[in-house]
């Protein structure tokens, strides 16, 4: 998905004008993993300069209220509507090693509690079976006239996410794409978080 990382309101307005209206603004900080919870996200912001400036100031002010947060900037990206949202993530289990999770719901994943787990590595065929095992599997057939997701392409993306996690090595603690938006043949990561294992200093 096209996006611009900016560090001031003027550049945010320029980015919004380039991307077109409406846009989404998200604060970027390693210490803020759940940006919506602290008011660090503004959706459906018109590309008008004043609106974008106000949104920039709003999300950065929200981040300023988080103790110890190091704000790297604000991500400006075009709004997306429709499609199906999923979570695809990897966590390192102390006994089983890296585990791949696939869940329906995007931002509502905790509410729906519909997920499938598998140890890595996972092939595209295995990822396809994980999708088929979800309780809400029917939404992946297309609902209310929406085009059904390309399940083969989606399964391949899920498998490659697992491959990426393995390639990042043992220092990776978790990798989460949420939401992963699927709309027909279009598959986009709208947000992602990576955390690393802490190492004791000498």
How would you sum up this structure in a few lines?
The protein is α+β, with helices and mostly antiparallel strands.
Radius of gyration: 18 Å
Number of helices: 5
Low-confidence spans:
none
Which percent range fits the helix content?
A: 25-40%
Summarize model confidence as the mean pLDDT. Answer: 91
CATH topology of the largest domain: D-amino Acid Aminotransferase, Chain A, domain 1
Q: Please give the domain count.
A: 2
Q: What portion of residues belong to β-strands?
A: 25-35%
Total strands? 10
Distance between the termini: 41 Å
- What's the CATH superfamily of the largest domain, by name? ATP-grasp fold, B domain
Tell me what the CATH architecture of the largest domain is. 2-Layer Sandwich
Order of helices and strands: EHEEHEEEHEHHEEE
User: Based on helices, strands and strand pairing, what is the structural class?
Assistant: alpha+beta
Broad shape:
globular
């Amino acid at each position: 998905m096209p996006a611009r990382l900016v560090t001031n309101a003027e550049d945010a307005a320029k980015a919004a004008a380039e991307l077109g209206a409406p846009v989404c603004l998200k604060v970027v900080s390693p210490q803020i993993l759940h940006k919506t919870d602290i008011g660090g996200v503004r959706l459906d912001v018109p590309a008008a300069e004043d609106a974008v400036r106000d949104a920039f100031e709003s999300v950065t002010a929200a981040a300023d209220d988080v103790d110890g947060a190091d704000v790297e900037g604000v991500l400006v990206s075009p709004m997306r509507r429709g499609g199906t949202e999923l979570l695809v993530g990897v966590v390192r289990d102390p006994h089983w090693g890296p585990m791949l999770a696939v869940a329906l719901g995007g931002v509502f994943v905790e509410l729906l509690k519909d997920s499938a787990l598998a140890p890595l590595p996972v092939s595209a065929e295995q990822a396809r079976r994980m999708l088929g095992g979800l309780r809400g599997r029917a939404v992946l057939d297309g609902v209310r006239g929406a085009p059904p997701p390309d399940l083969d392409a989606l399964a391949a993306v899920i498998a490659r996410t697992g491959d990426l996690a393995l390639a990042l090595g043992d220092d990776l603690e978790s990798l989460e794409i949420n939401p992963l938006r699927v709309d027909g043949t279009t598959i986009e990561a709208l947000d992602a978080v990576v955390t690393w294992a802490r190492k004791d200093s000498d």
